[in-house]
Amino acid sequence: MEDKSEATMESNLPALAYHLEPVNIRDVKLKDSFWLPVIERVQQKTIEFAIEKCREEGRLDNFLMAGGQLEGTVKGAMPFDDTDVYKIIEGASYSLISSPNEQLSQLLDSLIGIVAIGQEKDGYLTTWRTINPAQPPATWVEVKEGKRWESLFMSHELYNAGHLYEAAAAHYRATGKKNFLDIALKNADLMVNTFGDGTEKIHAVPGHQIIETGLIKLYQITGREDYLTLSKYFLDHRGDPENHKLFGAYSQDHVPVIDQDEVVGHAVRAVYMYAAMTDIAALEQDSAYYNAVNALWDNMVNKKMYVTGGIGAKHDGEAFGENYELPNLTAYNETCAAIGDVYWNQRLHNINGDVKYYDIIERTLYNGLISGISLDGVHFFYPNALESDGKYEFNRGACTRQSWFDCSCCPTNLIRFIPAIPGLMYSKKNDEIYVNLYASSDSEIDLADGSVTIEQRSGYPWKGDVNLELEPKRIEEFTVKLRVPGWSRNEVLPGDLYSYVNTADLTPSVTVNGENITPTIEEGYIVLKRSWKAGDKITMNIPMEPRFVKANAAVTEDQGKLALEYGPLVYAVEEMDNTDIDNISISSTDKFQIVEKPELLGGINMLQSDNINAIPYYSWSNRGIGKMKVWLNEKVEN
Length: 638
Description:
By secondary structure, the protein is α+β, with helices and mostly antiparallel strands. Helices cover about 35% and strands about 20% of the residues. The chain is built from 16 helices and 24 strands. It has helices at about 5-10, 35-55, 60-65, 80-100, 100-115, 125-130, 150-155, 155-175, 180-195, 210-220, 225-235, 265-285, 285-305, 335-350, 355-370, 410-415, and strands at about 20, 30, 385-390, 425-430, 430-435, 440-445, 450-460, 465-475, 475-485, 500, 510, 515, 520, 525-530, 535-540, 545-550, 560-565, 570-575, 585, 595, 605-610, 615, 630, 630-635. The strands form three sheets. Strands 3, 10, 16, 17, 18, 19, 20, 21, 22, 23 and 24 form an eleven-stranded mixed beta sheet that branches.
């Protein structure tokens, strides 16, 4: 009989060296009118849709062929197709936490059983190489002798393993079952025996990062130090020409990671690596790693981030551009990069609680991340452009969302990410609760001296009202910290890449039990420290108004243009709502009205002026092909 107790493996582990701990997804139940429909859409439609696509395109057959239960040649176009199955299992596992479903749990056991068939006896698991090592599914995977590990730059063998570990950790924590975890641990043990220091081991690093964070998650479950050691080995030896033939800046393998201070190369690989570096900085108390991730973050946020929170300017190499290179029509902004950036920023926030990291998370979540999935849950953006002429096929051969891709990493990454969003809402430390995101929910938060139930109700992002009712148990004095969003503090992003044309007094008003208070704001959080009792109520109202954004003068693409925002949302204009879209211009003195449109695009607030109808950026391209713009020409005042 399977042991379903996490305590059997995790009870004796060292405490994480993070300053803050996210409140577990298991303890946050969303009831929100904005985010809950997004999550339920993924749970009820996208997961089933993606599993069927994996069946149709042979993702599952590959495991059966690798295990000798089916004859044939490898199916699919990518050497990392296995990871689509892993990411679906991961997202479905998070879904089981918030929405228990025995039928889904049994389906996952079936998928895990299929994965197990494809694993070789020593733990190796990359199906295309097991099926026929001389015939990779993509021509750009170099094959010489048909051996394992011979082409790590593009074979994705270690990338496949990383997603396996991430998914297995999520499944174990969701269900307590070890059937998937055992597959991952067997593979991780093979990695430990294969790579690392020593003459008998292979000296190499992965071409595409993610095994590093996956190994750390297995370490956190098992306490196996060699998993942590191998993760750090892969990071320590990037940019080390004495260790291996370097892959170059595309894979962030041009100089040692602690010497990197500019975000370069493939954006998804980059942010996955930065997330792992942040883990090492925290777990190992490594100041060199910590200084490096801060330098990289500063460069990205100050010089290479879109106003939507998107990252990665170039289709060529799915890469960051040069400093201030931020084109709109040809912007890449891969959905996976936005997801990886949220993972990284949450880790950075966990180290020191700095509000700026959640400003990035919020901006990315509401704009450049959920833009990647349609309102019907079964159409997707791989890149997320900030402009469309209705002709340029920026989305891998289309100028609107597609139902699937040969490289389906983005749809399945959305599946693994979106059901876990409740785990971003709260953090805690000793007797402090950080309220990082605003969404209606019921939460149970354990503190050092007891637990607190918080009922949060909010109209966010359409309205700035937040209402909290607290029910502490066995504790009295503790601190509640309410994040004051960057847009409320007149910051588009931390730094000077973008700025509001006009400052506005959007300081939140706060009451406790109906009594107005002058809030103490420390480092971007309203700090409420007092003795709390059951039934105490906190209300906060953050004023919202339409805002006009301009870009730094170094961003040549956006000069003479303005962007529109309202609260945390970036707005766009679409051709179907606006005549003569190419000749639209705006002024910072224009007056916009907020018009509720419950029947449009799943229910939105539209911004309307005399000649403009603007919709939230995330909702564009849900009504067919047409022109779209985020940055609008600024009127020339006479």
